[in-house]
Amino acid sequence: MRRAGVLLAAALLAWASAAPRPAAAQDIEAGRAKAQACAACHGADGNAVSADFPSLAGQTWRYLYVQLRDFKEGRRSNPLMSPMAAALSRDDMINIANFYAAQPLKPAAFAVDEAKARLGKAKADETLCTMCHLGGLLGQNEIPRLAGQNYSYLVAQLQAFKARTRTNDAGTMTSVAQTLSADDIDNLGHYLAGLR
Asked: What is the CATH number of the domain that holds 48?
């Protein structure tokens, strides 16, 4: 009986060592290689080279994947991103998303106006941003991280939701943005960009 237990343990050990490495580890390295084409705008480590582009570092992998898929399938449009995403396979998108999600977000060099940031926090509380984006506005699943994102990019996206030129959100952000004034958007940009 003892010999059968030893044989079973040996068989399980052999099976476990022959099993492939966890997919996440493979995805990150494959994503790093595939993301080299993204570095000109989003930085080699996902920290954008210009405030006009989003930093992808520390973003949820699922959100990044969905956005790439939406660019590829035409639910979201951008003259730079749409052609970039068109050539990506599903695995490419997942790998790129996993790579950027694993990178640390670095503080941006944006000078936050503290008075505007206080007004932005009040507006974020009023519109219940944390219901979807969670505490600290760190995001979850298909809901993006907003904390520490580039001010110019945040403002541009809120304006796009308000103008209904960006609509790949199932209507939630489009509805919320209708309640925001230009000052609200500016204030939210200061608040969100300043979060760490």
From this structure: 1.10.760.10
